[in-house]
């Protein structure tokens, strides 16, 4: 079946789905394969659950008028997403970077939603499957699409751009993330700037943080719209303070966010800049950012009993960990403890990067509890640091009943699931 014909069938459906447990009536089910599953075997169940059509790539499962046999389900999903994106012909903003992608995406979506009907990546569905699903979630009513792109190897962003064909792009930053796949920070920069390369080659527009030297250098041959804290850029956005939450000044407006940490300034500024570019009213930009409440373990501020908790446990890498710790140091609170879990996907740099975090902590003014095999291999020279080999050891040996009237930072890579500490308080 040609992609044009498949797209006509897709337009009869409510949405695309790859999980029979989440199917809605009249969805199109894509029978993807993984290391431990074969979606083809769920085709019949998908139909029973309400799917209008099922896309399969094994002949034995092409058993009804509702199943459609293709050569490769994943490739078909990606090709259909690109066809649908071209069919809709709406502005697509692509977003990548080492840290802050999802928060920035949510802020941009909040701002643009003040004026437009937007569709944005849900959660962090930002890979070779998530990006197509995001594109296919866009409808004829969508006026602007916002697509988050993640990567841990070279050429991944390039491939995602070939699917989404963005008109605009923004890179949050370049940091020590996914070093195992990228090889080095230089590899990270090369991989992330694949977004810039696509936009430059296609004469599209890049949003640039004018305070970021790397962004300025890598986008110098592009159509750009920049923001920064002085008048040299298209739009001036100034950082005011980060205590207790980040405040910025824009066009004589003071915007008071619910986000903690000076590192969130650029995330807010990018949303302001993009809102300004798309002619969202200043007052609406302020309203959107001030109404945004962080969630899903990202920069959340919680209270449990007498303790204040900064829950930033969705993920971690050396760059984001350092930023979180330096922000934690600046808090005026007393009785501060940082609970940190291992950082993953660092490859041969894992040992030195975890030791760097230890060295940083030993020069800061708070206690730290470190959990994980990587931290367990480090050397400590201070009694302000405690280390547990894994979470079970921590749970069995650490007495959380002593934590009263404390301010706690909780951060670690996703695989560490550091939010489990909340259950112990």
UniProtKB/TrEMBL annotation:
<dbReference type="Pfam" id="PF02875">
    <property type="entry name" value="Mur_ligase_C"/>
</dbReference>
<dbReference type="GO" id="GO:0071555">
    <property type="term" value="P:cell wall organization"/>
</dbReference>
<dbReference type="InterPro" id="IPR036565">
    <property type="entry name" value="Mur-like_cat_sf"/>
</dbReference>
<feature type="binding site">
    <location>
        <begin position="97"/>
        <end position="103"/>
    </location>
    <ligand>
        <name>ATP</name>
    </ligand>
</feature>
<feature type="domain" description="Mur ligase C-terminal">
    <location>
        <begin position="298"/>
        <end position="376"/>
    </location>
</feature>
<feature type="domain" description="Mur ligase N-terminal catalytic">
    <location>
        <begin position="18"/>
        <end position="60"/>
    </location>
</feature>
<keyword id="KW-0133">Cell shape</keyword>
<dbReference type="GO" id="GO:0047480">
    <property type="term" value="F:UDP-N-acetylmuramoyl-tripeptide-D-alanyl-D-alanine ligase activity"/>
</dbReference>
<dbReference type="InterPro" id="IPR035911">
    <property type="entry name" value="MurE/MurF_N"/>
</dbReference>
<dbReference type="Pfam" id="PF08245">
    <property type="entry name" value="Mur_ligase_M"/>
</dbReference>
<comment type="function">
    <text>Involved in cell wall formation. Catalyzes the final step in the synthesis of UDP-N-acetylmuramoyl-pentapeptide, the precursor of murein.</text>
</comment>
<dbReference type="InterPro" id="IPR051046">
    <property type="entry name" value="MurCDEF_CellWall_CoF430Synth"/>
</dbReference>
<keyword id="KW-0436">Ligase</keyword>
<dbReference type="GO" id="GO:0005737">
    <property type="term" value="C:cytoplasm"/>
</dbReference>
<protein>
    <recommendedName>
        <fullName>UDP-N-acetylmuramoyl-tripeptide--D-alanyl-D-alanine ligase</fullName>
        <ecNumber>6.3.2.10</ecNumber>
    </recommendedName>
</protein>
<dbReference type="GO" id="GO:0008360">
    <property type="term" value="P:regulation of cell shape"/>
</dbReference>
<dbReference type="GO" id="GO:0005524">
    <property type="term" value="F:ATP binding"/>
</dbReference>
<dbReference type="GO" id="GO:0008766">
    <property type="term" value="F:UDP-N-acetylmuramoylalanyl-D-glutamyl-2,6-diaminopimelate-D-alanyl-D-alanine ligase activity"/>
</dbReference>
<keyword id="KW-0067">ATP-binding</keyword>
<dbReference type="InterPro" id="IPR005863">
    <property type="entry name" value="UDP-N-AcMur_synth"/>
</dbReference>
<keyword id="KW-0132">Cell division</keyword>
<keyword id="KW-0573">Peptidoglycan synthesis</keyword>
<dbReference type="InterPro" id="IPR004101">
    <property type="entry name" value="Mur_ligase_C"/>
</dbReference>
<keyword id="KW-0961">Cell wall biogenesis/degradation</keyword>
<comment type="similarity">
    <text>Belongs to the MurCDEF family. MurF subfamily.</text>
</comment>
<keyword id="KW-0131">Cell cycle</keyword>
<feature type="domain" description="Mur ligase central">
    <location>
        <begin position="96"/>
        <end position="274"/>
    </location>
</feature>
<keyword id="KW-0547">Nucleotide-binding</keyword>
<dbReference type="InterPro" id="IPR000713">
    <property type="entry name" value="Mur_ligase_N"/>
</dbReference>
<dbReference type="Pfam" id="PF01225">
    <property type="entry name" value="Mur_ligase"/>
</dbReference>
<dbReference type="GO" id="GO:0009252">
    <property type="term" value="P:peptidoglycan biosynthetic process"/>
</dbReference>
<keyword id="KW-0963">Cytoplasm</keyword>
<dbReference type="GO" id="GO:0051301">
    <property type="term" value="P:cell division"/>
</dbReference>
<comment type="pathway">
    <text>Cell wall biogenesis; peptidoglycan biosynthesis.</text>
</comment>
<dbReference type="InterPro" id="IPR036615">
    <property type="entry name" value="Mur_ligase_C_dom_sf"/>
</dbReference>
<dbReference type="InterPro" id="IPR013221">
    <property type="entry name" value="Mur_ligase_cen"/>
</dbReference>
